[in-house]
Amino acid sequence: MSLSATILSLTVFGIKSEACTNLIAGKKATTDGSVMITYAADSHGLYGDLSHTPAAKHAPGEMRKVVEWDTNKPLGEIPQPQETYNVVGNMNEFQVAIGETTWGGHNELVDTTGNSIIDYGSLIQIALERSKSAREAIKIMTELVDKYGYASSGESFSIADKDEVWIMEMIGKGAEKGAVWIAVRIPDDAISGHANEPRIRKVDFNDKDNVLHSPDVITFARKKGYFNGKDEDFSFADAYSTHDASTRRGCDARVWSYFRKYNKDADKYFDWCAGKSDEPMPLYIIPEKKVSLAEMQDAMRDHYEGTPFEMTSDVGAGPNHVPYRWRPMDYEVDGKNYVMERAIATQQTGWHFVSQSRADLPDPIGGVIWFGTDDTNTSVYMPFYCSLTEVPAQLAKGDINNFDFNSNFWVNNIVANQAYNRYDLMIPDIRKVQGNLENDFISTRPEQEQILLALYQNNDIDGLKRKVNEEAADIAQKATKDYQDLAIYLFVKFMDGNMKKTNDDGSFKLNEYGIPAFPSFPGYDKKYYENIVKESGDHFLISK
Do residues 509 and 528 make contact, with C-beta atoms less than 8 angstroms apart? Predict the structure, then answer.
């Protein structure tokens, strides 16, 4: 499948899923023993808000409406269980967290029965409302699609709890009800990830503890003509989807860029990502060093720095070394097809998170969703506990057609969109504010959690929730206010293409008479001037 065909299928079958990224780290692969997954909800039309569904008791016969996550289209109703759990974003009160990436797969496997009512977004939300562990979430998700049908295309899910983390991959059956799927537990000492490509290939089907699958995952592939080898050679990824150089480079390369940060041997998988080798990258690797929370957040800001795919030095980066490329991603010149790089950090992100599930703390305190809105690279990760019951006003629902300066999403967009024009000049100022906020949020966790733990041990759950909600409100307000100030500061500092002179503390310099110092003119880099001459010859030449 060509890259343009891949993008078309992802656009048709999932507006927000044009390209999401999940990174994973098992509990023995992290510095603090937490299980971590990440998720960037990348969409050109998705607003960044923190969703919340309160815990509830349900009467017999009570029904739950199922609404398609991408389009808001009503799909149907299913019975409620006796009890559902508190859900904050993509994490529930038992520290279960779920992320996803869409890969589409064979077009003929998209539901044609007209009766399927469970889309991938509803599948995530319903599982979070009903599960106390990752394994239970897998059981609930697969039972739901078996009973009510699967209304989406091919998906990979990251499913974590405080003890383990899984990748589950699923695709529909076209004219047949339900889905085929496979799930693999990622070892505790490993890191993994997926980015719009199915990643599960050969597995040990005899390992019942670490490999789960639908009964017909192989026989259905045989029936459809996707596979005709021995069972032990079956590859879900290769049977239910297709791969070429462009999809590897646009998708698997994002996971590879994460892998290579933690294991020097991962560089050998560059050839797979570049389309020069057919030896697949493994589902997971064992890191040479453990991953910290801050490093996981930093991994979500990746633009292929230090790799041949690095985005700030080619002509497309422009004179300000911008690591972003506007859509469409593919283009043609002189009958040849080319592609823009697609990094983890991208401008169209609506919201993103890094989740921490921790077995050494009670559930209300152990589960933290570090949540941010807009571009992962320029926004701030804010910590919210899974016991949160009140969404901060700055993260409430909104939409991308109505600007609100008090919205965290909109303020982050103002900052990011200024930086997209003059990236190398503005990113140091952004990093300073971003870093100060995140360092403060991380460094204050131990003290805050001691307070919460004391409330928990005294069985003051209402007091714990009140404290959680109060701190969340303060965090969202501070992050938004600091970025409001940053947005204005950047505008003033770089107004009209100039750059105002600043003191060491960032304040604007004044001249000896107390008025603003004359600004400097950053101009362009040498390569930009050379390209002008190369393109225009002597058109701008000054004659002697």
Answer: no
Please state, in angstroms and rounded to a whole number, the distance separating the CA atoms of residues 13 and 105.
10
Q: Quote the crossing angle between the two packed helices 461-493 and 408-419, to the nearest 10°.
A: 30
Q: How far apart are CA 449 and CA 457, in angstroms?
A: 12
Bridge partners, residue 88, by sequence: 52, 91
> Would you state the structure tokens that stand for residue 350, as one six-digit string?
């609506």
* Structural contact between residues 35 and 196, judged by C-beta atoms closer than 8 angstroms: no
d(CA 62, CA 78): 9
**Model pTM?**
0.95
Q: What are phi and psi of 30, to 5 degrees?
A: -115, 155
**pLDDT reported for residue 248:** 95
Among 375, 321, 366, smallest CA distance to 344 is for 375
Average pLDDT, the chain: 95
Measure the CA–CA gap between 40 and 23, rounded to whole angstroms.
Answer: 10
Does residue 278 contact residue 222 with C-beta atoms inside 8 Å? no
The pLDDT assigned to 19 comes to: 78
pLDDT band for 544, please (50, 70, 90 cuts): confident
Q: How far apart are CA 456 and CA 366, in angstroms?
A: 12
Q: Which two tokens stand for residue 518?
A: 């004359």
**φ and ψ at 358, to 5 degrees?**
-125, 125
- State how far the Cα of 453 lies from the Cα of 104, in Å rounded to an integer: 44
> Under a CB-based contact definition with an 8 Å cutoff, are residues 344 and 301 in contact?
yes
**Residue 382 phi/psi, 5° resolution?**
-110, 130
239 to each of 13, 104, 199, 280, 484, how far by Cα in Å? 20, 13, 11, 14, 49
Residue-wise pLDDT tens digits, 165-181 = 999 999 999 999 999 99
The pLDDT of residue 346 is: 97
pLDDT tens string 235-282? 999 999 999 998 999 999 999 999 999 999 999 999 999 999 999 999
Q: How far apart are CA 392 and CA 475, in angstroms?
A: 9
Spell 15-39 as b/e; 16+ CB within 10 A means b: bbbbbbbbbbbbbebbeebbbbbbb
**Contact by Cβ (8 Å): 67, 122:** yes
pLDDT at position 9 is: 38
pLDDT of 129 higher than 50:
yes
pLDDT (average), residues 26-41: 98
CA distance 371 to 441: 12
Residues 192 and 99: their CA atoms lie apart, in Å, by 13
Q: Tell me if 261 sits within 8 A of 289, measured CB to CB.
A: no
Provide the greatest CA pair distance for the chain: 91
373 with 414: CB under 8 angstroms?
no
In degrees, to the nearest 5, what angle opens at C-alpha 488 toward C-alphas 485 and 490?
105
> Within 10 Å of residue 380's Cβ, how many Cβ atoms?
28
